[in-house]
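Narrative progress, year one. The postdoctoral researcher (J.K.) led the effort to move from monomer predictions toward full complexes, under supervision of the PI. The following entry was the first complex the group processed end to end, covering 425 residues in total.
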Amino acid sequence: MDKHRITIEDTCESYLQSGLQTVLAGMAALGRKHIPVGCHGGGCGVCKIQVTAGTYEKRVMSRAHISAEDEASDRVLACRIWPTSDLRLKVLGKMGKSLCCETAASGTANPSSKKL
Amino acid sequence: MALTGVLRPGHVQMRVLDLEESVKFYGDVLGLVETGRDAQNRVYFKTWDERDHNSFIIRQADKAGLDFYAFKVDSKASLDKFEADLRAYGVSTERIPAGEMLETGERVRFEIPSGHLIELYAEKKDVGNGLPYVNPEAWTALAEKGIAPIRMDHILLYGPDIEKSQKIFEDVLGFYLVEHVVLEDDTTDLAIWLSCATKAHDLAFVRHPEPGKVHHVAFQLESWERVLRAADIMTMNKVTIDMGPTRHGITRGTTIYAFDPSGNRFETYCGGYSSYPDWQPIKWTVDEVGRGIFYHDRKLNDAFLSVVT
């Protein structure tokens, strides 16, 4: 199968991968780290990217992280897209937090009533 | 009977992004037994060795994550009493009629301050584990299908105000603290492990700014060998492993964290010590949290505090 060149614009890093792997899996398999790696299942949202050029196939992603508008604007999760051409992208997601934020976070929530 | 009130974790309902993909994963790879589907298009599972009709339920939604987590109580009288006690404590409750979930009696649902829905129920149909109640064998063929855990064991929830949720479980429902991780102020807990019986934990919380999040649902395995076999099955099926196989310092369980096809983390877990309510809780200081969570790596991975659904 043809390989596609993935270019991360933030760092100008690039790598080759097949269309059989997601963009995130292709990056992680090479030991690279620029896109944050989370659940690989479209659920947690940390690998959010903006595709700036190229084409891809995609699968369902959590609406908690990717709105319909995001999806229409090529803001997607790297773990749920498979390249069908060379791709260029920018990283939007990040690992949320560190231990030092924890104390400040306490006592702030007022959860609204939940309905399933 | 010494074990009264809240008996054990009973069922958990999770949201998945693609139902049939998830049914295949939970049935063939994790090796749960499908026990039914309902009019809401929910799919019900149990582990091979569980006797009640269901313990793990999935439904398709546009967001992954937890719908609710439930505990079985010893009688309808206890259910009524816990409902009254919760209300007296200032917690709003809602009754969900028998039969709303397949083969499950009336449920009392309430929201805790960390933003999670918790349920109590007293009745769920005993469908058995495939072995007779008189002179059984030791296991069935289903005990070898996929990872094949023994039971749905516990859950780790992420949200704010975990001390307020802890108070409800301790003061109203009879849980007790087994272990905790204390932040630098030596007062605020980063994380707590609670038990309702003699397991090292039935429920755990990590303090987190967003309410209602889930870190993982855990399934118990019989041995460390079975944990290693689970890792092999995950690799054969391209399941994303988050951490392990390794051991936790906290609870001493052996473990793998991995992700289902929607990014919901699950744990295949073995061991952990037995605890008792008269025991003094074990305290971990935050500078040693890495060893507490991942005993061999001795540091947290990036995903532990950041990747939840």
